[in-house]
Design brief:
By secondary structure, the chain is of the alpha+beta class. The chain folds into 3 domains: 67 residues; 107 residues, PAS domain (Beta-Lactamase), CATH 3.30.450; 53 residues, Winged helix-like DNA-binding domain superfamily/Winged helix DNA-binding domain (Arc Repressor Mutant, subunit A). Helices cover 49% and strands 16% of the residues. It has a 5-stranded antiparallel beta sheet with strand order 2-1-5-4-3. A hairpin with a 5-residue loop joins strand 3 and strand 4.
Length: 236
């Protein structure tokens, strides 16, 4: 019996499934879908393990991950289990040096790592994902604005396992002055247009304290009002 036509059809079906799986990943660059179906995708790969071309399907998944034009991280308990080359390029280090490291190495200070980490669970649990603009640190010490988005595989355990994306915003938004950790946190909230009361609730400080830090930022950036400060923070 000649089984070549049957094998050919099977191979074509597998390749078609692989292309559809890749489309799921590509849609996810907005971080709303990216890796939301990671476990399902991996399960699909496992299901066809008995096929003649399992290595090709795994290669497709790895290619989508490593060639993504945005920094991607698979994390567990805030430890980098895997990341792509774009993330390493953003933080100016070798990819291998990041794997196994705590996310803390990407933060300007341990305080910011702890405080932002504490803010993530309630938002992730309620919304299923988390996103913000924040100041982060490259391996050479340079501070830069970065858009960060994350999705947990189980929203009931936000830090347990999930995928995170990192987008370098330094081309349009510079860290123009030296700021303290708290000033960086206030600045990150101001660029979203939040009021002092809203920022106070998020950071668990009083609105009066927020106003004090806003005034400090205005002095450091040499601005005369809140609107000018916002424009400077946004790089306008």
């Amino acid at each position: 019996m000649d089984i070549r036509p049957c094998a050919s059809r099977r191979r074509g079906a597998l390749q078609g499934n692989a292309r559809r799986a890749l489309l799921v990943c590509r849609k996810g660059y907005d971080a709303a879908v990216l890796r939301h179906n990671t476990q399902k995708y991996i399960s699909n790969l496992t299901t066809v393990a008995a096929s003649p071309m399992p290595d090709q399907r795994s290669l497709d998944y790895q290619t989508a991950f490593h060639l993504a034009p945005i920094g991607l991280v698979l994390a567990r308990d805030r430890i980098i289990e895997d990341c792509n080359d774009e993330l390493a390029a953003i933080f100016r280090c070798r990819r291998e040096s990041l794997i196994g490291q705590s996310f803390q190495v990407l933060y300007p200070s341990a305080d910011e790592f702890e405080r932002i980490g504490a803010r993530i669970p309630p938002i992730m649990t309620a919304q299923g994902s988390y996103a913000d603009d924040r100041i982060m640190k490259r391996a050479d010490g340079e501070l830069f604005w970065c858009h960060v988005t994350g999705r947990s595989l189980d929203r009931a355990e936000p830090h347990a396992a999930g995928v995170w994306t990192f987008e370098d915003l330094s081309a349009t938004r510079r860290v123009a002055v030296e700021l303290t950790p708290r000033e960086r946190e206030i600045a990150a909230q101001l660029v979203t247009g939040k009021t002092s009361k809203q920022i106070g609730r998020i950071l668990d400080i009083s609105s009066r304290t927020v106003d004090v830090y806003r005034a400090r930022l205005m002095r450091k950036y040499g601005t005369g009002n809140a609107t000018e400060l916002l424009q400077r923070l946004l790089g306008q």
